[in-house]
Amino acid sequence: MSDETLSNLLKEDRRFEPPADLAANANVTAEAYAAAERDPEGFWAEQAGRLDWATPWDRVLNWDDPPFAKWFEGGRLNAAYNCVDRHVEAGRGDKVAFHFVGEPLGDTRDITYAELKDLVSQAANTLVDLGVRTGDRVAIYMPMIPEAVVAMLACARIGAPHTVVFGGFSSDALASRLEDCQAKVVVTADGGYRRGSASALKPAVDEARTKAAELGHTVEKVLVVRRTGQDLDGWDDDVDVWWHDSVDAASTEHTPEAFDAEHPLYVMYTSGTTGKPKGILHTTGGYLTGAAYTHWAVFDLKPDDVYWCTADIGWVTGHSYIVYGPLANGATQVLYEGTPDSPERGRWWKIVEELKVSIFYTAPTAIRSFMKQGREIPDAHDLSSLRVLGSVGEPINPEAYVWYRHVIGGDRTPVVDTWWQTETGQIMISPLPGVTHGKPGSAMIPIPGVSAEVVDEQGEPVGNGAGGYLVLTKPWPAMLRTIWGDDERFKETYWSRFEKLGFYFAGDGAKLDDDGDLWVLGRVDDVMNVSGHRLSTTEIESALVSHPKVAEAAVVGAKDEDTGQAVCAFVILRDEAGDGGADIVEELRNHVRKEIGPIAKPRQIMIVPELPKTRSGKIMRRLLRDVAEHRDVGDVTTLADSSVMDLIAAGASTGK
Ligand code: WTA
């Protein structure tokens, strides 16, 4: 971000006070900050009391061997029991857990907590029948249908960590995750509905299974939900099992076993700065405490709220704020399968109106696309049920914030801009809707119990009015425990930068304004944020270089009005490829799509004769970003050959 944009941002002087009635009845009041600061462990112990523990813990936090934390040591619990059974036992079995809305109009289904308990028990029994034992990994590759949530909870119930792979990822991406976590079983569907048509999933699982086998890993069983009814080639009777033949026929009786608080709950893969995605490991007691507390506090959840988080369960937001947080809190939710604009552009707002959604949580990229389409579309719907709006995934620009509050929230609703990461597991920095005033574009301050700072290279706090690195200075319950199978990479990635100080390095840049409120500025590493999704430059470069015509590639994230950042690639072709042919750009874009998935497809690929490198051979992405964002190229004095930029800029302007 340029200094000019930054200082404009910091001049933001609009303020929105919490609505009086919300403040008067808020779940959390201002005292919580001081109480948590006085005694953070006591504070988190109190929050853990929201859960049902089969055995209480002996020690709240064991931080004897940092950065390896143990929260609620000695405690035992079952995550699925906490998300489902206990609500039924407390007499709330008839409460709707999910209003499921499929993409085809009229395809809806309400599932109560009592029904969810039966479904999860049946799926747990089926997984056991398929040979899954406590500790085995199960991959989930599904559309946004109730069975996806049921599968996650069934895994949690039997202590088999799940790894949910976003349904938009390619078979290659799925295969590498299956191999990395050695998944025994995959749960999938024949397909799902996207933009009005059935889009297949099962064939990608078949391919991924073959590829995983080539990598030396065997997937034993594939459990398949029939969602679209589309034809399936390649059914393998030794491996494939229909959900309706197995789960539907299974017993609804299943006794949940209590697991250690540190028992692995799931692995979620996310992009890092190298080509290989990192398997972020979350465990049970601390994670569930963090997810449940923040969902209750940040959204001011009340028993009669209808809550809707539009994320996909393939991302961490779906894990913490569709599955574990809201269900642990016994909330009623909307679960929507499709895209925002199918079959018509007002689809989301129609759902809000019909189901009287009161809390709505989405991403800035979606808000920006609605802004572009014009306010007539949401204005055609009664959105008066809304009372709290949330944002996550990337910085929300002040104009999008104000539009969201004004057009969607009718100026009544606080907007909570929530900063967190796959690694943090829970919201870390956010306003509290009944306590903090809103300031468009700022995530404000850490929530009670969380300690964050903005520091310089030495780890010294920068103070108000200055920028630096965002760090977390104290452990928190939902923190990642390690990178699956790679403790060294865990230490190196997050804890080595400020090792002596023991700070967690988030990889984001941030600035404190004169009031001490925090503005997240974006990644300081080679991770891009496209429509709120994390993508690694190196991962896309590796995909490009795997194409036979490509010699070298450099990828940057360039500013984009719609998606926040967009993938821009600079590619040097191999000599023998000549000019690559007329369709070379499209060919390479599709290659990336095939290797990683549609979200990684570059917006732009420029074929260049050279790449700008320092004398030590490091690609200077900063200069490429200048080209991609149509700026004058900055300081080139550290380049090994400073004429390279002229060649690249000439190529870029002629579109080659
Ligand atoms: C970015 C998503 C600004 C940030 C929950 C972070 C944000 C990365 C915000 C994590 C926000 C997330 N304001 N930036 N409110 N929320 N980010 O792991 O760069 O998919 O490091 O987790 O998204 O992305 P992840």
UniProtKB/TrEMBL annotation:
Every copy of the AMP-binding enzyme C-terminal domain together lies at 539-618
| PROSITE patterns (UniProt xref) | AMP_BINDING
Q: In which domain of life is the source organism classified?
A: Bacteria
**Boundaries of every Acetyl-coenzyme A synthetase N-terminal domain copy:** 30-83
What the entry lists under InterPro entries is as follows:
Ac_CoA_lig, ACAS_N, AMP-bd_C, AMP-bd_C_sf, AMP-binding_CS, AMP-dep_synth/lig_dom, ANL_N_sf
Which parts of the sequence bind CoA?
Answer: R194, R195, G196, S197, T317, S531, R593
Q: Which residues bind ATP?
A: G393, E394, P395, D417, T418, W419, W420, Q421, T422, D508, R523, R534
Q: Which GO terms describe its biological process?
A: acetyl-CoA biosynthetic process from acetate
One GO CC term of this entry?
Answer: cytosol
Swiss-Prot/TrEMBL cofactor(s):
Mg(2+)
Q: Which parts of the sequence carry N6-acetyllysine?
A: K618
Q: Which residues bind Mg(2+)?
A: V545, H547, V550
The UniProt entry, under Pfam families, shows: ACAS_N, AMP-binding, AMP-binding_C
Catalyzed reactions? acetate + ATP + CoA = acetyl-CoA + AMP + diphosphate
Describe its PTM? Acetylated. Deacetylation by the SIR2-homolog deacetylase activates the enzyme.
Any one Gene Ontology MF annotation carried by this entry is: AMP binding
Q: Which keywords, in A-to-Z order, does the entry hold? A: Acetylation, ATP-binding, Ligase, Magnesium, Metal-binding, Nucleotide-binding
PANTHER family reported for this sequence: ACETYL-COENZYME A SYNTHETASE, ACETYL-COENZYME A SYNTHETASE 1
Physiological role: Catalyzes the conversion of acetate into acetyl-CoA (AcCoA), an essential intermediate at the junction of anabolic and catabolic pathways. AcsA undergoes a two-step reaction. In the first half reaction, AcsA combines acetate with ATP to form acetyl-adenylate (AcAMP) intermediate. In the second half reaction, it can then transfer the acetyl group from AcAMP to the sulfhydryl group of CoA, forming the product AcCoA.
What protein name applies here? Acetyl-coenzyme A synthetase
Q: Which organism is it from?
A: Nocardioides marinisabuli
Query: Which gene holds the coding sequence for this protein?
Result: acsA
